Amino acid sequence: MSTFDSDNLPSKALSNFNTMNDLKSKSIGLVLSGGGVRGMAHIGLIQAMKEHGISAKMVSGSSIGALVGALYANGNSVQDMLSLFKETPLFRYNFLTILKPGFIDTDRYFKVFKEYFPENAFDALERKLYVVATNLQKGEQRYFSEGELIRPLLASAALPPVFSPVELEGELFADGGIMNNFPLEPVMGNVDYIIGSNVSKVSELYKNALKNSWQITGRVTSLMIYAVNRQKLESCDLLLEFQALEKIGVLDRKGIEKAYLVGYEYASRVLDDVLE
Domain tally for the chain? Predict the structure, then answer.
């Protein structure tokens, strides 16, 4: 496995790619992590893959990775993907709820996604898609890959306590990243080559970056998520992690374009070297 996690591409990692000249002929699986607005870097990677003639036949995603993965599996253009996230407000006053456990009623976004997925079915997608969500009642993760599409997508991205859980088959589901922020499992063993995109990288912080309880809580949560998924990250054939995303807030819509450009520019450089 080769990992690119900084702006300098290490020559010792590139030396492992003497068999990568036939990458375009391999069956490729794409795994997309959760990470809020930072997930726009996934779209940048997809654009870079397209420009390099690389196409995944199978996609697995959690949270924002599930949403981006669904759009990719559906054949939507990069412009369509960015438009969805730019034009859909995260917080609408008429989406606020006091009847459900969450500030925003996640189900209210159904109509927005119906415009992009009119058939509302996994089987209607151009690529095989796996979406992971967390069953809050059973304390289990569950993969969705057939049947109804939109509600599992909404569930996978329903980050508590901001967004309310989504009821599926009589049970409450929420953000897939709670239990599996990097859903490698459905792809492993089913493709020749796995490309992973992790937008929840953890790196060293200066002491003054942890000044209050909120910052400490956020840091601890990030460390726990990263630790749980670390072994899976290392199992990818090619893993991209984007350190430059750390300054973009998870719910900061102003960072959409920046996160996309970080992903595109970095992925373009990595793929240039891999395919050279």
Answer: 1
